[in-house]
Amino acid sequence: MIVRKPLPRWADLILVPFLNLTLAFLISGLVVLIIGENPIEAVKILLFGAFGYGEGLGYTLHFATNFIFAGLAFSIASHAGQFNIGAEGQAYVAGLGAILVALALDQTHWLLVMPLAMIASAAIGGFWGFVPGYLAAKRGSHVVITTIMFNFIASAFMVYMLNRVLKQSDNMAPESATVVNAGRMPQLREWWDYFGYSPLNVMFFVAVAALIAAYILLWRTELGYKIRTMGQNPSAAHYAGISNSAIVMIAMTISGAVAGMIALNEVLGVQNRLVLDFVFGYGFVGIAVGLMGRNHPIGIALAALLFGALYQGGQELAFMMPAVTREMILVIQALVILFTGAMEGLFRGPLETLFGLVELNRSAAGRDVQEKPDDRGTYEEQMRNVRESARHLASVIEMGYDVIFTHGNGPQVGNILLQNEIASRDGIPPMPLDVCVAESQGQIGYMIQQALTNELIKRGIKRAVTSLIVQVVVDENDPAFKNPTKPIGPFYSEEEARRLMDEMGWVMREDKARGGWRRVVPSPKPVDIVEKDAIKRLIFGKSPGEIVIAAGGGGKYHTEINEALTDHIRGKSMAEMLQAVVK
């Protein structure tokens, strides 16, 4: 049985992307090594080109600005359950709004041009996202297909507009008139020389504001709650009174509007005119940014910065290390997209299995379920420890597995025997060891059953928990009966030990390492479980089956010996028998 546990949020947000990214860079390093270059030196050049000087950092942040908008566009639609891969086309047609406003208001001030251009670009980009959203919500069209088609339509439409409508009569190039005054977005180099000749402009701050706004929208507003609810469970959203079709159209419209901000950054921040293919694939890379950032604004910001660094650092690398061509830079970028996007789940399965095994290991609390080394063994201490273990056990059950739990009982049997010994001094007949073992099974089973049932109720898990008094069949010729080795109970002085051997017929052995004498009993190997049919009925009799608490010793059965089984019949041997029972 493969045990998988859903990844903790930190592992999902940090560990999985880190491993995917590491693998992408390792393979990229091998590619660089194959062509005879030093991968370590290549990484140094790439990092220096992206962050080592002001102009390089400016280009990195400029690229990251586009990736933030593209990543957010994908993320917002994704939260509504829509895989919007049309940000490329939505940003492309939004360039019309940006350039038309800029040309019309070129003689005013950029503080007027910028908000109006944003509104115009958002309106056109939003409309380009709304139509696939409408088709998905009202006609059942697959949003992936429609957004792909709209990318092609946008490309053809923009070619027509630039060649037949916006192109100047005195210019052969398919481009609009140039914005020369107020229509340009101010670049940060105008205020701070540190960024050199990089095109980083005020749209960077708009991108940061968009990250904050997206977080507030999705996690702090009623609309955001409806978007996320619809994306996670459309049926639940419908029964909650949410209009799924309206949410799809709204989310796709917002997604297209955010993608439209790429147009301002490129058309008015860099080109100062509308040109063919100014989007340069930013919309498609935004898919990888959104996936790598787990559709969260913080993750998107970090992923956008990474891809911005790859774009700028890659250009520096191609210049400083000519053997690494521009095509190889594209291969490196493609590998990052491949492992963080298309193959994002590569490490997820193994990690879920690993975390599941860790949880199972934590759940296998053994003798520490009830007593810790420094405990006195009071009821309060034992219940505290059982409740702690029950939280781990419930996590295993939450994974959806039918479970049998075994437990140790050595310390408890020892305490019961000691109570018997003290009571016998007042004339109360002591019970034999097999009865004491059964008593410990009932005690431990009851405590685990109560704590585990309460924990499952807290988690909303409806599963019955049942404890069994288990008997096992042993071989009466097992050598363990002739050579008792299993210590139980408290330590005695030599004088007390010899008295008990004479009066009670006990077998006592000295434990020199720990200083004292202890009673030892046989620990034969179990052959069969008497209650195996009952266990099968409890687990498989209905769905979901009951959670069974079994083992923890066993009484005499088909032998003439009262010395029953102790710790050895649990652990691996008992687990193997129980596993055979349920196969």
Describe this structure in a few short sentences.
The protein is mostly helical and 583 residues long. The chain is 62% helix and 6% strand.
Please describe the structure with a list of short key phrases separated by commas or semicolons:
583 residues; mainly alpha; three-stranded parallel sheet; three-stranded antiparallel sheet; 21 helices; 8 strands; 6% strand
Descriptive report:
The longest helix has 30 residues, at 110-139. The chain is mainly alpha-helical. It is 62% helix and 6% strand. Mean pLDDT is 85; it is low at 554-572. The strands form three sheets. A three-stranded parallel β-sheet has the order 1-8-2, with helices on both faces. The protein has a three-stranded antiparallel β-sheet with strand order 4-6-5. It is elongated. Strand 5 and strand 6 form a beta hairpin.
